[in-house]
C-alpha cells in the first residue's frame, strides 16, 4: 500500500466517524508513524509503506474513528508554537488558552520574580510563558521562578517531562512542582498566578466526554451547576497567595466570565477586567491584589 492509498482510506473513515478535520487528522497520524511533516507526505504520495507502518497507521485510524483525539494517539500537541507531550492524564492544550498566555506575558515586567501556574495539567501555560520569555532574549537571571500546581500527580509528572523536553537542565532549576488542592498546600506568595481551572458546568462536562475523547473529567468539571465551584475557592486562595499588587489571570468559559469577574471584585481584587479570545468570546478574567 502507498501513502496516497492509506491517506485516502484514513480521510474517508475518519470523516465518516464525524471528525471536522479528517485531512489534518490523517496527515498527523501518517506523519507521526513516518516521522515526517505534512509537506513531505504531500510530495511522497507514491511511496510504498512497509507492512509495519501500514499496520500502525491502520491501528491509529481505528482509534481515531472510536473518538480518541489525534493528540492522544500521537502523544503530542502543539501549543503556543511549542510541542507538548500529552497523555489521557492531562487535558489536551486548547488554542483558546493561548489568550491566557498572551495576557500573562504582557503583564510580566522586570519586577516579576515569581509566577504560579495553578491547575497546570501538561504545564502548557507556564512552560509557554517561560519558553517565550527565554526566546525573547531575556537574560536567564531575570527570568522569574515558576511553580506548577495540580491536584493530579499524574498530570504533574507529565508537566515535569514537558519541562525537561522544552528547557535545558539549568532552566528547569527555576521550576518547582507541587501537588495541592488549589493552593491549600502552598506556603509561598507570587507576583502572578496564571490559571486555567476546570470551569465547565458539571452536567455538561460529563456529556462532553461521551464522544470518546477520553480527557480527564477532573480537568473539565467545575464542580457546580454554573461551573464556578472550583473558582469560588480559587479566588480567595489566590488573593491570599499574591504579593501586594500581584495579578491573578484566569481562563473561564464565555458563559461564566462575567460572574467570575464579579466574584473577584467581591473578594477584594481591583482593576478586574475580561479579555476576549480570537473568536471574540470572553475568555480571561484578571485583577490585581
Ligand atoms: C482545564 S485543565 C488545565 C490544564 C492546563 N493548564 C491547560 O491549560 O491545558 C485543569 C487542571 O486542573 C487540575 N485540577 C482539578 N481540580 C484541581 C484542584 N482542586 N486543585 C488543583 N488542580 C486541580 C486538573 O488535574 C487539570 O490538570
TrEMBL record:
Its biological purpose: Methylates the class 1 translation termination release factors RF1/PrfA and RF2/PrfB on the glutamine residue of the universally conserved GGQ motif.
Protein name: Release factor glutamine methyltransferase
Protein's UniProt keywords contain Amino-acid biosynthesis: no
Gene Ontology biological process terms, A to Z: methylation
Positions annotated to bind S-adenosyl-L-methionine: 150, 196
CDD domains listed in its UniProt record: AdoMet_MTases (cd02440)
Lineage: Bacteria, Pseudomonadati, Spirochaetota, Spirochaetia, Spirochaetales
Any one GO MF annotation of this record: nucleic acid binding
Keyword Thylakoid found: no
EC numbers for this chain: 2.1.1.297
Domain Release factor glutamine methyltransferase N-terminal, first and last residues per copy: 5-75
Keyword line: Methyltransferase, S-adenosyl-L-methionine, Transferase
Amino acids binding substrate: 196-199
Designated gene of the protein: prmC
Residues in Methyltransferase small domain copies: 108-200
Organism (species): Treponema saccharophilum DSM 2985
Xref: Pfam families: MTS, PrmC_N
Enzyme class: transferase
Superkingdom of this protein's organism: Bacteria
Recorded family membership: Belongs to the protein N5-glutamine methyltransferase family. PrmC subfamily.
Reactions catalysed according to its record: L-glutaminyl-[peptide chain release factor] + S-adenosyl-L-methionine = N(5)-methyl-L-glutaminyl-[peptide chain release factor] + S-adenosyl-L-homocysteine + H(+)
Amino acid at each position: 500500500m502507498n501513502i496516497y492509498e492509506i491517506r485516502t482510506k484514513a480521510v474517508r473513515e475518519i470523516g465518516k466517524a464525524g471528525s471536522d478535520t479528517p485531512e489534518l487528522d490523517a496527515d498527523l497520524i501518517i506523519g507521526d508513524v513516518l516521522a515526517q511533516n505534512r509537506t513531505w507526505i504531500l510530495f511522497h504520495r507514491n511511496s510504498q509503506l512497509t507492512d509495519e507502518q501500514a499496520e500502525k497507521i491502520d491501528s491509529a485510524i481505528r482509534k481515531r474513528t472510536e473518538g480518541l483525539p489525534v493528540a492522544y494517539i500521537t502523544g503530542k500537541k502543539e501549543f503556543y508554537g511549542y510541542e507538548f507531550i500529552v497523555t489521557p492524564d492531562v487535558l489536551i492544550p486548547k488554542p483558546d488558552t493561548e489568550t491566557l498566555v498572551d495576557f500573562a506575558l504582557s503583564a510580566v515586567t522586570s519586577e516579576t520574580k515569581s509566577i504560579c501556574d495553578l491547575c497546570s495539567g501538561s504545564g502548557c501555560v507556564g512552560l509557554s510563558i517561560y519558553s517565550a520569555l527565554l526566546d525573547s532574549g531575556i537574560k536567564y537571571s531575570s527570568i522569574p521562578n515558576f511553580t506548577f500546581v495540580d491536584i493530579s500527580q499524574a498530570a504533574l509528572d507529565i508537566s515535569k517531562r514537558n519541562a525537561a523536553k522544552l528547557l535545558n537542565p539549568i532552566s528547569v532549576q527555576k521550576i518547582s512542582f507541587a501537588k495541592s488542592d488549589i493552593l491549600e498546600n502552598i506556603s509561598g506568595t507570587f507576583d502572578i498566578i496564571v490559571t486555567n481551572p476546570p470551569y465547565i458546568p458539571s452536567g455538561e462536562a460529563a456529556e462532553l466526554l461521551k464522544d470518546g475523547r477520553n480527557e480527564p473529567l477532573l480537568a473539565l468539571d467545575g464542580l457546580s451547576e454554573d461551573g464556578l465551584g472550583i473558582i469560588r475557592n480559587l479566588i480567595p486562595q489566590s488573593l491570599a497567595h499574591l504579593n501586594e499588587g500581584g495579578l491573578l489571570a484566569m481562563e473561564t468559559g464565555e458563559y461564566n466570565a462575567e460572574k467570575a469577574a464579579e466574584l473577584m471584585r467581591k473578594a477584594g481584587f481591583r482593576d478586574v477586567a475580561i479579555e476576549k479570545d480570537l473568536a471574540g468570546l470572553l475568555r480571561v478574567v484578571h485583577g490585581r491584589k
